[in-house]
Write a structure and sequence with these properties.
The protein has helices at 10-17, 22-51, 55-84, 131-147; strands at residues 96-97, 100-101, 111-115, 125-129. The protein is mostly helical. α2 (22-51) runs antiparallel to α3 and α3 packs antiparallel against α4 (131-147).
């Protein structure tokens, strides 16, 4: 996204999806879940460089977290729109990356939070969370990052 482009507000997104067919709402949610999964993967790849002091990688991770938070909010808006129409959302849908199941599926949810370990020897801890929980956690991380002006934390 260019520096001058601003994503549409949550209210405008909710207004835009109000007249879409149910299939389009589910397709958009799948697209957003796929994008979140790719951003998580990107952050996993950037983390070692950020840990080594690469400021651009650290900034990219923070930007990806902000983008993921917006996407999770949009998934939640899609869910609310489907439920408002009296239809089930299907919280048992697994998180997908390019149509393939990603991570544990025995507790599949509409989205997945991945916490990246700071130790290079420890694999990422994967735990499934609801869209609302994920949005809250990402917002907490963003708020925490905004209040910590003392550099990159390793």
């Amino acid at each position: 996204m260019s520096a001058s482009a601003v994503p549409i507000s949550q209210d405008r997104f909710a207004e835009a999806i109000a007249d879409l067919p149910i299939g389009n709402l589910h397709a958009k949610a799948a697209e957003l879940r796929n994008s979140v999964a790719h951003l998580v993967h990107s952050n996993e790849q950037l983390q070692p460089f950020a840990d080594d002091g690469d400021r651009e990688c650290a900034d990219a991770i923070k930007e990806n977290q902000r983008v993921m938070a917006r996407m999770v909010v949009r998934i939640d808006l899609l869910k609310k729109e489907v439920e408002k129409r009296g239809l089930p959302w299907g919280d048992d849908e697994p998180a997908l990356v390019n149509g393939k199941s990603e991570g544990p599926t025995e507790q599949a949810s509409t989205s997945m939070e991945i916490q990246v370990s700071t130790s290079p020897d420890t694999p990422p801890n994967r735990r499934l969370r609801s869209d609302t929980e994920l949005a809250q956690r990402l917002q907490e991380q963003i708020d925490e990052d905004m209040h910590n002006d003392d550099g990159v934390h390793l």
